[in-house]
Write a structure and sequence with these properties.
Layout lengths: L1 H18 L18 H12 L4 E10 L2 E6 L9 E3 L4 H14 L23 H5 L2 H5 L11 H4 L3 H6 L15 H15 L3 H13 L4 E3 L13 E4 H12 L3 E2 L2 E2 L3 H8 L15 E2 L6 E5 L3 E6 L4 E9 L4 H11 L13 H11 L14 H4 L3 E3 L7 E9 L2 E8 L4 E8 L3 E4 L22 E9 L2 E8 L5 E9 L2 E8 L7 E5 L1
Parallel strand pairs: 15-17
Antiparallel strand pairs: 1-2, 1-11, 3-5, 4-5, 6-7, 8-9, 9-10, 10-11, 12-13, 13-14, 14-15, 16-17, 17-18, 18-19, 19-20, 20-21
Helix pairs in contact: 2-12, 2-13, 3-8, 3-9
Length: about 500
């Protein structure tokens, strides 16, 4: 009876996710109608999905304002929000542009003037000279301190008291805390968080509602990271960007700002950096770019928007190279004849699934562990104790967290089973108070297989970004679990269980 109640609860949970989904807004079209061979998209999908060290979570391709291709390999789905890391920065740039349009802000305003209460007793010439534009272009003159957000609660004050070593505007130094300062300035001049301001000026007019953003210990959206948003909403933002700030015939943000933020403003990266945006190898292409492969790519020359979310250990160049070298060159200006490849494309879009653990469905070891509880020594993933059960050929693992919360995760064999988790997923960042501003619940999908007598299982946190893989082993000397994650190289660590 308990197992039946569990799966009834799981079905209700998934129904609730679907009911609250905000998807399907953008117009759809066939690739051929927009001058793109379906075969080119099939080749792109396959190349991305089967790329080593890469898990694709979503891909949307738009041309001429219409979605012509999209995949969400199982267990991911269109309704899930996704962590964006540094892709968040581009939305801060849009917020700054809106404030400039309203004459609330000028890019030549001095940063120090916004926070007089946090300035050092002696203000250096470089600090006095630092402008909003210097923050936008990552040329603040401050040496990046990536541990600052993990050690302090007063981020604005700490930043303003750092040595401004280089003359502002001269040396590119990529720094998420610089974008945080932009977020803090926006909140100071508008009285609203960046998220609330964007919601008022953009999102409310674009039917974008399912958005959250991490909040700092100072009550400010983190800016340089922490955006949590659906992929289709990112595609809307990309289309607004591509169309010079116009949405449904209305100018929401000035074309002048879009042009400025999209053009080279400093010497960051291989091709240059704009206002919180990256220049690309392909002519006219610009992008928002986040860790582990979160992209919004705009290609004016081809009238294309691409959104990609993933967890990848590549540097992003292989993925972008597929767009530049394999997809875009096959696009033409006129509609193409209908093709049988389109039906193949639609079928493939529904069939993609991330790899499940390889092995057998059962093991003689299973009977020995059913109903038993095991404590995990010194696990960094907030799991303190687990117990195993089974139902209808699926494995269940009940997880007790260090704070005492518990939940049961179903694990499918050669398939993914999804449920709501207790609390928050694991995160690759560790800023103080990072859970503030994020809206649960969060969901995880699990799968398992037996490799001889070892139980291998993987869990994807599907409305987040991270994943964990476990290898449970029992032998005469005791029991261990080896856990690895999808966001750190050589992350596998072995822990004793008892």
């Amino acid at each position: 009876m308990r197992i039946k109640r569990l799966f009834l609860s799981l079905a209700i949970t998934l129904l609730a996710i679907s009911a609250s989904a905000q998807i399907g807004d953008l117009p759809r079209s066939t690739p051929e109608a927009e001058g793109v061979p379906s075969k080119a998209l099939i080749e792109l999908y396959d190349s991305l999905v089967y790329m080593p060290q890469t898990d694709i979570h979503s891909l949307i391709v738009m041309r001429h304002g219409k979605v012509i291709g999209e995949i969400y390999p199982k267990p991911f789905a269109p309704e899930y929000q996704h962590t964006q890391y540094s892709s968040s920065k581009t939305l801060v740039s849009l917020a700054v542009g809106l404030a400039v349009d309203e004459n609330r802000l000028r890019i030549n305003d001095r940063v120090a003037t916004f926070f007089p209460e946090y300035l050092p007793d002696t203000i250096s010439d470089n600090l006095a000279a630092m402008t909003v534009k210097d923050l936008l272009t990552m040329t603040s003159g401050v040496k990046p301190d990536w541990n600052m957000r993990n050690r302090y609660k007063n981020w604005v004050e700490v930043f303003l008291n750092k040595e401004v070593k280089n003359t502002p505007g001269e040396v590119f130094a990529y720094d998420s805390m610089v974008t945080y300062m932009l977020s803090a300035i926006m909140q100071r001049i508008t009285g609203k968080t960046v998220l609330d301001y964007l919601d008022e000026k953009l999102f409310s007019q674009m039917n974008i509602e399912k958005v959250a953003w991490e909040i700092s210990p100072e009550g400010i959206n983190t800016g340089g990271w922490g955006l949590h948003i659906q992929s289709e909403s990112l595609a809307k933002i990309g289309q607004l960007w591509l169309d010079g700030g116009v949405w449904n015939g209305k100018q929401l943000i000035s074309k002048d700002w879009i042009d400025q933020m999209s053009s080279k403003q400093s010497n960051g990266g291989d091709y240059g950096y704009g206002f919180q945006t990256w220049q690309c190898a392909y002519p006219t292409a610009v992008r928002a770019d986040g860790a582990l492969g979160q992209y919004v790519i705009v290609v004016p020359e081809k009238d294309v928007v691409i959104v990609l979310t993933e967890a990848s250990f590549t540097n992003g160049k292989p993925q972008r190279g597929l767009f530049w070298n394999k997809l875009l060159p096959q696009m033409v200006d006129e509609p193409l004849a209908e093709s049988a490849d389109y039906e193949i494309l639609k079928k493939r879009e529904q069939e993609y699934q991330l790899p499940t653990p390889q092995g057998k469905k059962s093991s003689s070891q299973l009977k020995k562990i059913i109903g038993k509880s095991y404590k995990i020594e010194k696990s960094p993933y907030e799991w303190s104790e687990v117990s195993f059960d089974e139902s209808d050929g699926n494995l269940l693992i009940t997880i007790t967290k260090k704070d005492g919360e518990k939940y049961t995760q179903p694990l499918g064999y050669k398939e993914w089973l999804t449920t709501e988790i207790a609390g928050f997923p694991p995160y690759s960042l560790n800023p103080i108070g990072w859970k503030e501003g994020l809206e649960g619940p969060f969901y995880a999908a699990g799968s398992y297989a037996w490799d001889k007598k070892a139980l291998v299982m993987k869990i994807h946190y599907v409305n987040w970004v991270t994943a964990l893989e476990f290898r449970w082993e029992w032998n005469k000397d005791g029991a261990t679990v080896t856990i690895s994650n999808n966001y750190g190289r050589n992350s596998a660590r072995t822990y004793n269980i008892e």
